[in-house]
Amino acid sequence: MLALAGFASPAAAQTATPAPTQPADVAAQDPGQDQTGVAQTTGAPAAPDQAGGADIVVTGSRIARPEFDTLQPTQVIGAAQIQNRGYTNVGQALTELPAFGPPGNSGVGAQSSFGPAQTFVDFFGLGTQRTLVLVNGRRFVSSNTASIFGPVSAGTQVDLNNIPSTLVERIETVAIGGAPIYGSDAIAGTVNIILKRNFEGLNLEAQTGLSDHDDAPDNRLSLLAGKNFAGGRGNITISGEYNKVTGLTASDRAITAAGNFFGTPPASANSQFARLLYPSQRYSAFTSGGVPFSEDDYLASSSGIRNAAGQLQQFGPNGTLVPLDLGTVLRQGYISSGGNGYDLPAQSNLLTNSERYIGSVQASYQLTDNIRFFGEGWYVHAKGVNLIDQPNYNTALFDDAGTPDGNLLVNINNPYLSTADRATIAANLAPGQQQFYVGRALSDLTTGRSQATVETYRFVAGFDGALDVGGHDFKWEVSGVYGRSQTTGRNYELVQQNFANAIDAVRDASGNITCRPGAVNANIATLNSTCAPLNIFGVGQASQAARDYIFAIATPRSVNEQYVFNANINGPVFTLFGNDVSISAGYEHREEKTRFDPGTYYAGETLADGTKQQFGRTIPIDPIAGKYNTDEVFGELVVPFVSSKNALSWLKTLEFDGAARYVDNSLSGGDLTWTAGGRLGFFRDLTFRGNFTRSIRSPAITEVFNPTSRAFDVGNDPCDARYVGSGPNPSVRAANCAAAGINTATFDSNFSNFTIPVTIAGNPALQNETADSWTVGAIFQPQFVRGFSLAVDWVDIKLKNAITSLDGASLLNACYDSPGYPNEFCGTFDRDADGQLTTIREGYYNAASYKMAGLTVTAAYRLPLERIGLTNGGVVGLSTNYFYRDKLETQVGTGDIDHTAGEVGYPRHSGTANLTYDSDNFNLLFQGRYIGKGAFDIDEAANSRDIRGVGAWTVFNTTVGVKVNQQFGLRFIVDNVFDRAPPYPSPAGGGTTQYFSGILGRYFRAAANVKF
Would you give the DSSP letter of residue 252? Predict the structure, then answer.
């Protein structure tokens, strides 16, 4: 996690040629330089050991300054750390920083079919859309699908699969403060990925990984080649990377296959808790083979088919009736612990299949001593495959028999029934009844497997250089960026009309099983247009012809385009008390375009009245298209009143820093973001720092342009007699419901009993999100402990007018729980004369607020062993990064506050420590990651469940590297060295992503690199 320069990459072959320091294209460091890494890990001035001292540019500012002097908490992950931990994805590196919450999406866990395996990071747990990701200080095109069914919340998030880890020089993360420097989205913070520059040589690397269970292989090949030319004035660097990961499902690990879950105990248990932890979750309302019922029911105990011995029956894998064991039946009656019902937990993806090809080229040429041309070209081809997910279901839990989602209606004379089974079923039916009902999970047909391919192109071109203005050296840059990312899905989807035709099987005059004559196909092409009968009894009994008849291939496509023009200049304008007062100023124009085409299948069939009807089991999904542009001007000022040049006996450092940016957005109008702060030091060893920042996030295209889409929703109506006594202030709720003419003592809302029609639409009236944030901290670098540095910072973020997608229950609560009733939310739904809801207009609103507060602590120590008399003994380093999460809460309107700090994924305490040893021919890393205890739901009542959370968890990783000679190096990496399982009872209750290393188990990687 933390970069220690003593743990340098033996493969580095780059050289730092003299060039002007640029705001967004930082010169590479000389790998031979004696670096402590302290500045990189803390954002503090370098320890006394550090050589050099040239001004460089860090993410929190565009003004070059010495030794990483920043106002904000800053952590840096260096190239050596990336290489020695064996990261194949930049997102993996960021997850080891404790200030980052679980990623909004990654290759781990459940996946969206519109973007499996995409990786988006979440700084401080405020949402992936509020973390700004840059590459070389410039924006990168988003790969987030614009649909409301995309992998993460709407926004311009950057998929970190697009970044080749081999090319990364370092990753800088800066808490808050980035908005005035870079614009919208940097509410939580900024991640800036700095690439290697002026690389010379050839580096080839191969890495392979395999778990202790002999599965989940992860292989990577990479090439990095660079060449200086024209006497060192020019350079071209080429990078190529290939990575392939083979995934896992829940059944591949005993801890997830166990199916532990929190269930509602039966009344006979007489438990004081609402939910208890049980093993082996099973469902009896449906199974993979099918559960036959005599009535349209979901309770096998009351309407299930029984054999002559009174045993409940289900269709076994071969399509004949076998006993259905209910196990321990819980209160709902259709959920059990144990037995042989449907194994729902097994339908979970643990790790996706993924495959990536990344190619990039960087070029630069010093046209004159003061003008340099630079350019970049990128191509990324990435494919992710979600291996398994919940299938389509036919069950009375979802709808009436005969409807697409209800129980299957099957004729007693179905030719696929054996004579014995037909007799057993008939004996359970009423006289003359010719049909029975089947609850079935179509898990052998609709497995949830989905895939998407992402192709990304990106081009950067510009000029930078130096300029003398009135005797002062200024640095300038002009650049243009174009990016395009296209995500194309390819999913096998059920066509309901053809499915209904295929299961209605009969025998023809020759005794052959066929579809019932007169079947009419759906108005969409399937793999085979000829109806073939489908045997829905058992598992895997369907013929290939039947499968081809009922499946269409859905091909949704999402395209994002980005254009950015930036011009900036910075440098000293005058001298104050012997120190340079520096400014930076610039202009940026940015345009973002998005279009999402659901494809024929997901769009649905347009009927004569203009409405749409789905072809399968999902509601029709509408296309989206939109764009916006921004014109932005920005400036920054650094005034060092007191520095080492004019230090006083009682004052060593006094500096003011300020920055502002005006953003004129074509959708949300103009807004100002700014920051102000400074540094203060009374002693050479101790410096205080702090800043206040106003930051913004502009509405995303999806949030504004999503068309009015039809859907169905169900939830708790606050005016219902069952729920009127809940909420933040029940008396206010009751009074407002009464004012609406509803008798809350007797009102039984349909919305709380079954689904009602709703619409989901974008909101053109959305305003910018705004956040007021501040940090205060100190950097301690004692002269009496050479090589030691400590940074401690408090971070506080208050976000208001946050854009959120409100469901029906949220809109109703926002209306009736408000002391200012009626308010704007009361117009988002309609009730009839009886008070029943007829429709709800759901969508995006500036209705949420977030609060986050926490303490970051970063410490590092580097000890060259020659100090203690061991000549050529190498360097020992220790670095730690700790985060205390004091507050993380969300509130929608005036509703209840959702407290998240202290829950699984967002523990109060977390940290990472690296112990390293590095010498000329050998290096060692031993890493420990600590994740504090976490509750499943910190707001739930004390008696809500028997186990309310998990304990603290620590996992250890290690790397051993050997430099065989100047050209060849080897590394051996072990993750989860001691094979620590997740804290009990996780992943029951959540935590698959947080504790994935524990679920995966001990994991081995071996890598070799050759350089020339």
Answer: G
Give strand pairing partners of 485.
456, 560
Cα separation, 132 vs 149, whole angstroms: 22
Return all residues near 781 (Cβ < 8 A) that are at least 6 apart: 38, 44, 45, 47, 48, 685, 686, 788, 789, 790
Rounded Cα distance between 525 and 519, Å, is: 15
> Which residues make Cβ contacts (< 8 Å) with residue 769, sequence separation at least 6?
130, 187, 696, 697, 698, 799, 800, 801, 802, 803, 846
Residue found by looking up tokens 């001691």 in the block: 978
- Residue pair 39/791 in contact (Cβ under 8 Å)? The answer is no
pLDDT in tens, 877-922: 999 999 999 999 999 887 778 899 999 999 999 999 999 999 989 9
Q: What is the largest CA-CA distance in the chain?
A: 108
How far from 389 is each of 120, 334, 447, 551, CA to CA, in Å? 21, 21, 6, 17
Which one-letter amino acid corresponds to residue 596? F
Residues of the chain with pLDDT under 50: 1-53, 67-68
List, in order, residues 6 or more apart from 130 with CB less than 8 Å away. Answer: 123, 155, 185, 186, 187, 188, 697, 769, 799
Q: Measuring CA to CA, how many Å separate 542 from each of 173, 498, 501, 537, 835?
A: 53, 14, 14, 9, 48
Closest CA to 9 of 97, 104, 64, 79: 79
pLDDT given for residue 941 in this prediction? 84
Assign 3-class secondary structure to 149-201: CCCCCCCCCCCHHHCCHHHEEEEEEEECCCHHHHCCCCCCEEEEEEECCCECE
Residue-wise DSSP of 591-618: EEEEEEE-HHHHH-EE-TTS-EE-SSSS
Dihedral sign (CA 753, 723, 903, 89): positive
Contact 44, 58 (CB under 8 A): no
Q: What is the dihedral of CA 269, 272, 278, 281, to 10 degrees?
A: 80
Check if the beta carbon of residue 492 is closer than 8 Å to that of residue 553. Answer: yes
- Give the contacts of 660 (CB within 8 A, at least 6 positions apart): 180, 634, 635, 636, 672, 673, 674, 675
CA distances from 936 to 193, 945, 947 (A): 34, 10, 9
Identity of the amino acid at 716: N
Q: Is 208 exposed, middle or buried (0-12, 13-18, 19+ CB in 10 A)?
A: middle
Q: Partners of 327 in the beta sheet?
A: none
Q: Give the tokens for residue 941.
A: 């009542």
Indicate the pairing of strand 909-918 with strand 922-931. Answer: antiparallel
- Token pair 């033996």 is found at 10
> What is the C-alpha to C-alpha distance for residues 873 and 236, in angstroms, rounded to an integer?
37
What backbone phi and psi angles, to 5 degrees, belong to 750?
-60, -35
Alpha-carbon gap, residue 982 to 988, rounded angstroms: 10
Alpha-carbon distance of 284 to 286, in angstroms, equals 5
Residue 961: is it exposed, middle or buried by C-beta count within 10 angstroms (0-12/13-18/19+)? buried
CA angle 991, 994, 997 (to 5 degrees): 110
